[in-house]
Amino acid sequence: MSKQVPIDDSAVVEGVDDDGVHQITPDLAYKRLAIVNAMFFGTPAVDGRTKPEWVLIDAGLKGTTDMIADAAADHFGADTPPIAIVLTHGHSDHVGALEALLERWDVPVFAHEAEFPHLNGTCPYPPTEPRVGGGLMALTSPLLARGPINVASRLHTLPADGAVPGMPRWRWIHTPGHTPGHVSFWRDDDKTLIAGDAFITTKQESAYAVARQRPELHGPPMYFTTDWDSARDSVRRLAALQPELAVTGHGRPLHGEALRRGLTTLARDFDKVARPKHGRYVEEEEKGRR
Length: 290
Known about the structure:
The structure is a single chain. The protein is α/β, with parallel strands linked by helices. The chain has a single domain, classed as Metallo-beta-lactamase, Chain A (4-Layer Sandwich). The chain has helices spanning 65-76, 92-95, 98-104, 116-119, 136-139, 207-212, 228-239, 256-268, 270-273, 280-289; strands spanning 5-6, 16-18, 21-25, 28-33, 36-41, 55-57, 84-86, 109-111, 155-157, 170-174, 183-187, 192-196, 216-217, 245-248, 254-255. Helix 7 packs antiparallel against helix 8. It is globular and about 60 Å long. The two termini are 26 Å apart.
Protein backbone atom coordinates (compact mmCIF):
# COMPACT_ATOMS: atom_id res chain seq x y z
CA MET A 1 0.00 0.00 0.00
CA SER A 2 1.24 3.49 -0.76
CA LYS A 3 1.47 6.14 1.91
CA GLN A 4 0.95 9.85 1.53
CA VAL A 5 1.88 13.24 2.87
CA PRO A 6 -1.43 14.76 4.03
CA ILE A 7 -2.17 18.36 3.07
CA ASP A 8 -4.64 20.74 4.70
CA ASP A 9 -7.60 21.68 2.49
CA SER A 10 -6.63 25.34 2.85
CA ALA A 11 -3.63 24.67 0.57
CA VAL A 12 -5.89 23.87 -2.39
CA VAL A 13 -6.10 26.50 -5.14
CA GLU A 14 -9.53 26.21 -6.72
CA GLY A 15 -9.24 29.22 -9.00
CA VAL A 16 -12.08 30.83 -10.91
CA ASP A 17 -14.19 28.08 -12.46
CA ASP A 18 -15.32 29.02 -15.96
CA ASP A 19 -17.21 26.02 -17.35
CA GLY A 20 -14.71 23.61 -15.83
CA VAL A 21 -11.60 25.64 -16.64
CA HIS A 22 -9.96 26.76 -13.41
CA GLN A 23 -8.02 30.03 -13.69
CA ILE A 24 -5.36 29.85 -10.98
CA THR A 25 -3.08 32.75 -12.02
CA PRO A 26 -3.81 35.55 -14.50
CA ASP A 27 -2.16 33.49 -17.25
CA LEU A 28 -2.41 29.86 -16.11
CA ALA A 29 -5.48 27.63 -16.03
CA TYR A 30 -6.21 23.94 -15.95
CA LYS A 31 -9.05 21.61 -16.83
CA ARG A 32 -9.61 18.23 -15.25
CA LEU A 33 -10.23 15.55 -17.87
CA ALA A 34 -11.56 12.61 -15.82
CA ILE A 35 -8.32 11.34 -14.25
CA VAL A 36 -5.78 13.86 -15.58
CA ASN A 37 -5.26 17.60 -15.96
CA ALA A 38 -4.48 19.63 -19.07
CA MET A 39 -3.05 23.12 -18.59
CA PHE A 40 -3.51 26.33 -20.56
CA PHE A 41 -0.92 29.12 -20.50
CA GLY A 42 -1.94 32.54 -21.77
CA THR A 43 -4.16 35.47 -20.88
CA PRO A 44 -7.83 34.76 -21.63
CA ALA A 45 -9.66 36.65 -24.34
CA VAL A 46 -11.34 39.82 -23.11
CA ASP A 47 -13.45 40.50 -26.19
CA GLY A 48 -14.37 38.81 -29.43
CA ARG A 49 -11.72 40.68 -31.42
CA THR A 50 -8.70 39.67 -29.32
CA LYS A 51 -6.68 36.64 -30.44
CA PRO A 52 -4.44 35.77 -27.50
CA GLU A 53 -1.29 33.72 -27.88
CA TRP A 54 -1.46 30.63 -25.71
CA VAL A 55 0.16 27.25 -25.13
CA LEU A 56 -1.38 23.88 -24.29
CA ILE A 57 0.54 21.85 -21.71
CA ASP A 58 -0.23 18.12 -22.12
CA ALA A 59 -3.11 16.72 -24.12
CA GLY A 60 -5.25 14.51 -21.93
CA LEU A 61 -6.87 11.16 -22.57
CA LYS A 62 -8.02 9.75 -25.86
CA GLY A 63 -11.58 10.91 -26.40
CA THR A 64 -11.10 14.31 -24.75
CA THR A 65 -10.28 16.19 -27.96
CA ASP A 66 -13.55 18.12 -28.02
CA MET A 67 -13.33 18.89 -24.30
CA ILE A 68 -9.88 20.42 -24.76
CA ALA A 69 -10.71 22.29 -27.97
CA ASP A 70 -14.02 23.61 -26.66
CA ALA A 71 -12.42 24.76 -23.40
CA ALA A 72 -9.70 26.53 -25.38
CA ALA A 73 -12.26 28.23 -27.62
CA ASP A 74 -14.23 29.45 -24.62
CA HIS A 75 -11.10 30.62 -22.84
CA PHE A 76 -9.13 32.20 -25.69
CA GLY A 77 -11.74 32.76 -28.38
CA ALA A 78 -13.01 30.72 -31.29
CA ASP A 79 -10.56 29.87 -34.07
CA THR A 80 -7.59 30.67 -31.85
CA PRO A 81 -5.23 27.70 -31.96
CA PRO A 82 -2.28 27.51 -29.57
CA ILE A 83 1.12 28.67 -30.77
CA ALA A 84 2.61 25.44 -29.40
CA ILE A 85 1.89 22.30 -27.41
CA VAL A 86 4.47 21.37 -24.78
CA LEU A 87 4.54 17.99 -23.08
CA THR A 88 5.68 16.96 -19.63
CA HIS A 89 5.92 13.39 -20.99
CA GLY A 90 4.26 11.05 -23.44
CA HIS A 91 2.12 8.66 -21.40
CA SER A 92 -1.27 7.96 -22.95
CA ASP A 93 -3.19 9.99 -20.36
CA HIS A 94 -1.09 13.05 -21.27
CA VAL A 95 -1.04 12.69 -25.08
CA GLY A 96 -4.24 10.75 -25.72
CA ALA A 97 -5.90 13.57 -27.67
CA LEU A 98 -2.71 14.89 -29.26
CA GLU A 99 -2.98 13.30 -32.70
CA ALA A 100 -6.61 14.37 -33.07
CA LEU A 101 -5.83 17.90 -31.89
CA LEU A 102 -3.07 18.17 -34.48
CA GLU A 103 -5.61 17.37 -37.17
CA ARG A 104 -7.33 20.63 -36.15
CA TRP A 105 -4.30 22.71 -35.19
CA ASP A 106 -1.18 23.03 -37.35
CA VAL A 107 1.18 23.72 -34.45
CA PRO A 108 4.55 22.42 -33.22
CA VAL A 109 4.88 19.95 -30.34
CA PHE A 110 7.83 20.19 -27.94
CA ALA A 111 9.14 17.45 -25.66
CA HIS A 112 12.39 16.20 -24.18
CA GLU A 113 14.36 14.16 -26.70
CA ALA A 114 14.26 11.10 -24.41
CA GLU A 115 10.49 10.97 -25.00
CA PHE A 116 10.84 10.95 -28.79
CA PRO A 117 10.74 7.15 -29.27
CA HIS A 118 7.26 7.16 -27.72
CA LEU A 119 6.08 10.13 -29.78
CA ASN A 120 7.50 9.31 -33.22
CA GLY A 121 6.13 5.81 -33.59
CA THR A 122 9.35 4.01 -32.64
CA CYS A 123 8.56 2.06 -29.47
CA PRO A 124 6.04 1.75 -26.62
CA TYR A 125 6.65 2.47 -22.98
CA PRO A 126 7.58 -0.46 -20.73
CA PRO A 127 4.71 -2.49 -19.24
CA THR A 128 2.84 -1.11 -16.26
CA GLU A 129 3.13 -2.68 -12.80
CA PRO A 130 -0.36 -3.51 -11.46
CA ARG A 131 0.92 -4.97 -8.17
CA VAL A 132 1.86 -1.61 -6.65
CA GLY A 133 -0.27 0.92 -4.82
CA GLY A 134 -3.11 -1.35 -3.79
CA GLY A 135 -5.89 0.28 -5.80
CA LEU A 136 -8.21 -0.33 -8.74
CA MET A 137 -6.38 2.13 -10.99
CA ALA A 138 -3.17 0.19 -10.48
CA LEU A 139 -4.86 -3.19 -10.99
CA THR A 140 -6.36 -2.08 -14.29
CA SER A 141 -3.24 -0.24 -15.48
CA PRO A 142 -2.32 -2.99 -17.99
CA LEU A 143 -5.33 -1.76 -19.98
CA LEU A 144 -3.67 1.64 -20.47
CA ALA A 145 -2.24 2.24 -23.90
CA ARG A 146 1.57 2.26 -23.91
CA GLY A 147 1.91 3.79 -27.37
CA PRO A 148 3.73 4.80 -29.31
CA ILE A 149 1.87 7.56 -31.03
CA ASN A 150 3.38 9.21 -34.10
CA VAL A 151 3.51 13.01 -34.28
CA ALA A 152 7.01 13.05 -35.79
CA SER A 153 6.12 15.67 -38.41
CA ARG A 154 5.30 18.21 -35.68
CA LEU A 155 7.79 17.08 -33.02
CA HIS A 156 10.60 19.32 -31.79
CA THR A 157 13.15 19.10 -28.99
CA LEU A 158 12.77 21.50 -26.09
CA PRO A 159 15.43 24.22 -26.43
CA ALA A 160 18.78 23.35 -24.90
CA ASP A 161 18.93 26.69 -23.07
CA GLY A 162 15.94 25.73 -20.91
CA ALA A 163 13.47 28.12 -22.54
CA VAL A 164 9.87 26.99 -23.00
CA PRO A 165 8.45 27.86 -26.44
CA GLY A 166 5.57 30.30 -26.18
CA MET A 167 6.03 30.70 -22.42
CA PRO A 168 8.34 33.68 -21.73
CA ARG A 169 10.14 33.68 -18.38
CA TRP A 170 9.51 29.96 -17.85
CA ARG A 171 12.15 27.25 -18.02
CA TRP A 172 11.93 23.50 -18.29
CA ILE A 173 13.61 21.21 -15.79
CA HIS A 174 14.49 17.62 -16.59
CA THR A 175 12.72 15.53 -13.92
CA PRO A 176 13.17 11.90 -14.99
CA GLY A 177 12.00 8.83 -13.12
CA HIS A 178 8.36 8.51 -14.07
CA THR A 179 9.66 8.45 -17.65
CA PRO A 180 13.21 9.06 -18.95
CA GLY A 181 12.29 12.36 -20.58
CA HIS A 182 9.81 13.72 -18.08
CA VAL A 183 10.10 17.50 -17.60
CA SER A 184 8.54 20.08 -15.32
CA PHE A 185 8.05 23.80 -16.00
CA TRP A 186 9.11 26.56 -13.60
CA ARG A 187 8.67 30.32 -13.42
CA ASP A 188 11.04 32.09 -11.05
CA ASP A 189 9.04 35.33 -10.98
CA ASP A 190 6.21 33.97 -8.84
CA LYS A 191 7.60 30.50 -8.00
CA THR A 192 4.95 28.69 -10.03
CA LEU A 193 5.59 25.04 -10.88
CA ILE A 194 3.93 22.77 -13.42
CA ALA A 195 5.16 19.41 -12.12
CA GLY A 196 3.49 16.98 -14.49
CA ASP A 197 3.74 13.56 -12.84
CA ALA A 198 7.06 14.14 -11.07
CA PHE A 199 4.86 14.33 -8.00
CA ILE A 200 1.08 14.47 -7.79
CA THR A 201 -1.59 15.58 -5.34
CA THR A 202 -3.85 12.52 -5.27
CA LYS A 203 -3.34 8.79 -4.82
CA GLN A 204 -3.54 7.92 -8.50
CA GLU A 205 -3.48 4.17 -7.85
CA SER A 206 -6.91 4.37 -6.17
CA ALA A 207 -10.09 5.00 -8.16
CA TYR A 208 -11.78 6.19 -4.95
CA ALA A 209 -9.04 8.72 -4.24
CA VAL A 210 -9.07 9.94 -7.84
CA ALA A 211 -12.84 10.48 -7.65
CA ARG A 212 -12.64 12.18 -4.25
CA GLN A 213 -9.65 14.43 -5.08
CA ARG A 214 -8.69 14.90 -1.43
CA PRO A 215 -5.38 16.81 -1.38
CA GLU A 216 -2.38 14.62 -0.60
CA LEU A 217 1.20 14.71 -1.81
CA HIS A 218 2.41 11.56 -3.55
CA GLY A 219 5.31 10.54 -5.69
CA PRO A 220 4.63 9.77 -9.36
CA PRO A 221 1.93 7.22 -10.24
CA MET A 222 3.45 3.93 -9.10
CA TYR A 223 2.11 1.67 -11.83
CA PHE A 224 3.82 3.61 -14.65
CA THR A 225 7.10 4.64 -12.95
CA THR A 226 10.21 2.72 -14.00
CA ASP A 227 13.15 4.47 -12.29
CA TRP A 228 12.59 5.14 -8.61
CA ASP A 229 16.05 6.50 -7.81
CA SER A 230 15.66 9.17 -10.49
CA ALA A 231 12.08 9.86 -9.40
CA ARG A 232 13.33 10.55 -5.85
CA ASP A 233 16.08 12.84 -7.12
CA SER A 234 13.56 14.74 -9.26
CA VAL A 235 11.23 15.35 -6.31
CA ARG A 236 14.17 16.60 -4.26
CA ARG A 237 15.16 18.95 -7.08
CA LEU A 238 11.65 20.41 -7.24
CA ALA A 239 11.29 20.64 -3.46
CA ALA A 240 14.49 22.68 -3.32
CA LEU A 241 12.79 25.33 -5.47
CA GLN A 242 10.30 26.00 -2.63
CA PRO A 243 7.36 26.68 -4.98
CA GLU A 244 4.54 29.00 -4.05
CA LEU A 245 2.10 27.24 -6.39
CA ALA A 246 2.22 23.76 -7.92
CA VAL A 247 -0.04 22.33 -10.61
CA THR A 248 0.33 18.59 -11.20
CA GLY A 249 -0.85 16.12 -13.79
CA HIS A 250 -3.21 14.46 -11.33
CA GLY A 251 -5.02 16.08 -8.43
CA ARG A 252 -5.72 19.66 -7.42
CA PRO A 253 -3.21 22.54 -7.43
CA LEU A 254 -1.67 23.50 -4.09
CA HIS A 255 -0.01 26.64 -2.79
CA GLY A 256 1.67 28.29 0.13
CA GLU A 257 3.55 27.10 3.17
CA ALA A 258 1.56 23.87 3.43
CA LEU A 259 2.69 22.93 -0.08
CA ARG A 260 6.32 23.70 0.67
CA ARG A 261 6.26 21.86 3.98
CA GLY A 262 4.60 18.82 2.45
CA LEU A 263 6.92 18.75 -0.53
CA THR A 264 9.94 18.95 1.76
CA THR A 265 8.57 15.99 3.72
CA LEU A 266 7.91 14.02 0.53
CA ALA A 267 11.45 14.66 -0.69
CA ARG A 268 12.99 13.70 2.65
CA ASP A 269 10.89 10.55 3.16
CA PHE A 270 10.48 9.57 -0.49
CA ASP A 271 11.80 6.03 -0.09
CA LYS A 272 9.35 5.39 2.75
CA VAL A 273 6.19 7.04 1.45
CA ALA A 274 6.51 7.03 -2.36
CA ARG A 275 8.67 4.11 -3.46
CA PRO A 276 6.78 0.79 -3.54
CA LYS A 277 8.23 -2.08 -1.53
CA HIS A 278 7.79 -4.54 -4.38
CA GLY A 279 7.31 -4.54 -8.14
CA ARG A 280 9.37 -5.36 -11.20
CA TYR A 281 11.09 -1.98 -11.44
CA VAL A 282 11.97 -1.79 -7.75
CA GLU A 283 13.35 -5.32 -7.97
CA GLU A 284 15.36 -4.47 -11.08
CA GLU A 285 16.93 -1.48 -9.28
CA GLU A 286 17.79 -3.63 -6.29
CA LYS A 287 19.45 -6.22 -8.54
CA GLY A 288 21.45 -3.46 -10.20
CA ARG A 289 22.89 -2.40 -6.85
CA ARG A 290 24.18 -5.87 -6.03
